[in-house]
Amino acid sequence: MGIRFTKEGFLTTIQDDGRYGYQSLGFSTNGVMDQLAMKHANLLVNNNNVKEAVLEMSIIGPSMTFEADMVIALTGADMSPKVNHKPVPLNKPLVIQAGDRLDLHAAKNGVYTYLAISGGFDIADTLNSKSTALHVGIGGFKGRAIQTGDYLPIRTSLKRTPVHWGLSSDVTSYIYDEKKVIHYIEGRQYDWFTDEAKAAIDEELFQLTPQSNRMGFRLTGPMLEHKETKQLLTEATTFGTIQVPPSGEAIILMADRQPTGGYPKIGQVIQDDLPKLSQIRPGQTFHFVRCTLEEAQQKMLEKERQLNRLQAAIQLKWKEWGHAHN
């Protein structure tokens, strides 16, 4: 029992929270680009582990046929999903019957859409993660992107009657806001940059170039010049690090970043804004706002509290549903 892909998307992979503890051995962390959307999807299908592996679909989604009854949820970018040619909503549990077909199309907004299944995919861990590492061909489904004809097994078949609730639009507003603001804290080499560069990152608009991908977002905007040329020993990389090569054009390191890097780092995108950053489309403008470490921690703690409240509310909904149908 599982899912058969009748059409591959632009880039569809299996991802979870990431592969931690192996950067010293040369392995990238990988994992989903938008961790918040992954967690929302898993909550909606009543998975106890909010970091359970999901399908991450990029830009143009795939088509698939379900070969078992199951409950799924779609979160993130809106790819105009249709089940058996009828539009279905994002951000709510969807009851699927064996034989149903799901078609996803080009993302209207955002970049990444996520599909979670109640019970999860029946895929083995590689180095303690199911995430696909495309550059070395390990993890996920055969270490590669999903292709037409692939079959993904699931752990459990689940038969349910329709569910009539879902997430509020407020929870997903970070994807649809037209004015994108990305908060950052000062990087380890912040003082290596000129006063003009420090002013520019706070005051000027930036855009993603079409060359942006899961490894890194290349930016167009003001040149961020170094005060002087210094040699930097290579350091471990982090999701959201804003590094600046000699050209002065900033690069933000993303989920598939290399394990180490040697360019000076002017800033670090705060954890709370990484989901918003991941859903910015090439050509879309945004601006940075500097904040303190304490402010970044407060934002992270508040997001965790919101997620915990949401998880409690959804678990209560599933419990009520179970009582009503027993």
From TrEMBL:
Pfam families: CT_A_B
InterPro entries reported in the protein's UniProt record: CT_A_B (IPR003778), Cyclophilin-like_dom_sf (IPR029000), PxpC (IPR052708)
Residue ranges of domain Carboxyltransferase in the record: 24-306
Domain of life assignment: Bacteria
Key words of the record: ATP-binding, Hydrolase, Nucleotide-binding
Molecular function terms from GO: ATP binding; hydrolase activity
Protein name (database record): Biotin-dependent carboxyltransferase family protein
Organism: Aquibacillus koreensis
